[in-house]
Automatic annotation (TrEMBL):
Protein name per Swiss-Prot or TrEMBL: AB hydrolase-1 domain-containing protein
GO molecular function: hydrolase activity
Superkingdom, taxonomy of origin: Eukaryota
Keyword Hydrolase in record: yes
Domain (AB hydrolase-1) ranges: 134-343
Species annotation: Aureobasidium pullulans
Keywords (A to Z) from UniProt: Hydrolase
PANTHER family: 2-SUCCINYL-6-HYDROXY-2,4-CYCLOHEXADIENE-1-CARBOXYLATE SYNTHASE, AB HYDROLASE-1 DOMAIN-CONTAINING PROTEIN-RELATED
InterPro entries per record: AB_hydrolase_1 (IPR000073), AB_hydrolase_fold (IPR029058), Pept_S33_TAP-like_C (IPR013595), Serine_prot/Carboxylest_S33 (IPR051601)
Amino acid sequence: MEQKTGKLDQPSVSREGITTSRPIWRSTALCVAACLSFLTFLHGWDLLPTYQDPNVASIPKPDNHSERNFSWHDIEASPELNYYQCYEDYRCAKLQVPMDWWRNSSQPGKNISIAVIRLPARVPVTDPRYGGAVLTNPGGPGGSGVAQMLRNGRATQIIVDAELDPNTTSANSEARYHDIISFDPRGIAHTTPGIHCFPDSLARSTWALQNEALGLLGSSEDSFYRNWYRSRALAEGCSAATGTTEDGSEAIGEHVNTSPVARDMLEIIERHAEWVSKQVSAETSPGVAERLRYIKGKPKIQYWGNSYGTIIGQTFASMFPDRIDRMVLDGVCNAHDYFFGSWFSNLSDADRILERFFSYCYSAGPENCSFYSASGAAAIKQNYKDLLSHIFEHPMVVPSSRTRGPDVITWSDVKSMVRLGMYQPLIYSPMVADLLTSISSGNGSLFADFKAMSNTFTCPGDECTSAGPFSDECNQDDNGADATLAILCTDGPGLGDIDEESFQEYWHALQQQSQVLGDWWAHTRLGCVGWKTKAKNRFEGPFAGNLSHPILFIGNTLDPVTPLANAKEMAHNFPGSIVLQQDSEGSPLPLHLPVPSYLHAALVIHHTNTITNFTQKHTSWSSPSLCTAKATRHYFQSGLLPPLNTICKTDNKPFINTSISLALLTLEDMELTEAMKVMEDTVLQDIGFKRTSGGF
């Protein structure tokens, strides 16, 4: 066997805005050079030091967390957590687990190698203030925990840790300092084997561009059938490629649903507790040594899950109710609705958020919202509807420029753009207003430039040629959308069996729920049409239980796809748990729903003419709140929930920066505020778009 290298860490449609009348075009031509201005995550952001294990040799520091000096291929998978230094200050491991947790122990079977990443606690694990590990999940399905950790691991640590620097607190204090751990769930990113629906990255990129040209459901009279048959083609092909093997052995597509992921999380906390116990030395005090002693079946989880991550959390809590120490579920999906496969519990707030966009724009005035109308919010709304109506019938032709070819701005493009403003009003509202204004004035160049920036292709290399199609080597850019399909379509029962008539009825029912998002949300289930693979092991509930510790649920007042009502309903199923309401609008951006690539992982022209990456927000992160951050910290520190019916105000509102002055904050609150801003500006660069995928 080849020796692995690395440094081992020993210790027809009802369409919104479609009318028969023509719009009255705005006569003023506006030159839009700035779409958005926001803080971006600066790598190496080091408000607080991380404890450095003296037994771990240093390695060259990679630029911007790149993999130039680290490769997951250099780590040997093991049934134990053997941590290697990686990505500068992090620790990485590959945990080997059974592909089928519930197979007969006497039967041979395959394994999965789970990519695990840890940001070490700011105190040694033998310090009395060590608070254990907090496990995180970014959502999706299809989100990479490794990517999330590299973007906001330090910010997460600051929020859950005690407010004081550990160097200034007594070793006997009640302050807690945590490891932060995340992982790539089954089939995703660095976890192997991966889910691959395409033979290589070039085929995936080509498919995505074809989808952009096709448009959303409702974008034309024949859009249903064209989307229907393309979805079937991908689902049938992907389920066949991932759900069967030539020798009839275990197939990865049968084992990527949520239930085995919850079991994987249990294994991670077991193996981490085992690793911690091995750090005890002769110098460790007897009390600490006893506290760190590993007893199989005793470790409990501390977890922070967002969006689809709340589905994983609810599943874990229902399967292992006595293994909860702390659990924060932020942006809550209704587990009953999700696993039934209808996804009807998501859009109740959606249209109200767009109404607030119009109101915020009017309140902000023309100096802050370029789509402003002096006639009021209703007039702004009508201008938007007129624009949609016109561009549906007359897509905007944009000639070539020196940096891109010709393009056409369509109804689907505008709808996708506006959706960003609904998901992240604080960040995207100015950009949405500017682009609506530029199109209204007859200028589509900015939008076309915007679209062109992400049209990149990766051609198969020598590694791909050697490994063969559908291999990890041929799909190195991103497989999150592929994994999304496999997870969603095997979590629900028989989602691939729906016929055309039944699906159209389902689609129209969603349109009745939301004119703004109904067409788009229908793509979630459409992606499963023709999916043949079934999950081998599927926990069917009940999604409820008496827990060893209550859950803190968090929900925004208005959320386009994870409404506050979901959090309230699910909290009732876990006695003692409560809901913290954040008085804001927004949501996590679903990682793999049909968002055009230029809006999903695209680039935006900053007002300084520099290029910065689009961000994708999650839950309460969509609108930072010092109140929410403090409540979350207090829960992780003490286990105490905030008072019943707590409502946290946010620090900002769309279009107008109303944040409190940092000069009025304590140093600790200032650091907490900056941590929340980093969470807000989280960039999940490795999440890509595929039309037939879904997500929450």
